[in-house]
Here is the input.
Amino acid sequence: MIEPLRQNPKEASTSGLMTDAQKEQFHAEGYVTLPDAVTGEQLEALRGQLADWVAESRSHTANYGECIDGRPRFDLEAGHNSTAPKLRRINNPAEVSETYRQVAFEARTVDYVAALIGPDIKFHHCKINVKRPRSDTRVGYHQDFSYTPHTNLDLAEALLLMDDMTPENGCLRVIPGSHLEGQVSLWHGGRFTGEIEGSLLDDFERRSKSILAPAGSVCLMHPLLMHGSDPNRSPQPRSLFICCYTAADAFPLAPSPLPNRFEGAIVRGRASPIARLAEMSVELPDNWKSASFFEVQGQKSASTG
Ligand SMILES: O=C(O)CCC(=O)C(=O)O
Here is the structure.
């Protein structure tokens, strides 16, 4: 008989890093926001690299760059031009920047994740969501598990704030406790729309909470937490470096939405030869081909707009 890899996978070796109240908030409300997830130097380096990418985007008129599956790495919002660049997504920046790879693999964020769903943690994928000043990019309400279904629910999405997040610049909005209410369908009329049905919006909006925190903080989300965000109406940018981590014994039930050469890399602890299966039914995503989920959610890019 095959024994479980460990008796209590929630027992983390990172004692003292987070308070019991912070861990309890993640499990009870589905998210927790923590300060100083990266050092000041790491934050500066991330921001510097992003500024270079935004500058580079000025010379492009359509999505560009190439990920390992042939899709563009750099995704531009419709209306992008050289004077008002609207770079909105960079897919798997860790593959093209050592600064981003180091933060994704080594920053304190990963210790926070190990304290919540560890000790054994795998990297799945990463991305930067940029909302340039006064840009229309929004994020329709969804649960990340619907894009990255796994054999169990021990996943954590780490959203690192690269700018202060404010009510005006399109801050992340979460629905506390929604991770305990099951998966909400993202398929409508036979199509994977990547966001919830419009009729559910009012209820979720009423229950939503804005994540307002300074740059360098991280919001850690349970994979079934419902969340979204509005356009940036301010003169300031709003950028998030988002990494998806899983427990070592959680295995994908669908192809990665953002294939990358680091998928499955162990970032804390040890690999698992055992897949842990949670008893649940899981709605699977469509294997979409566009440059980012913004297009899946019906928002045109510079290539399609
Ligand atoms: O950028 C945001 O506001 C939310 C990001 C998000 O939900 C995602 O990329 O899955």
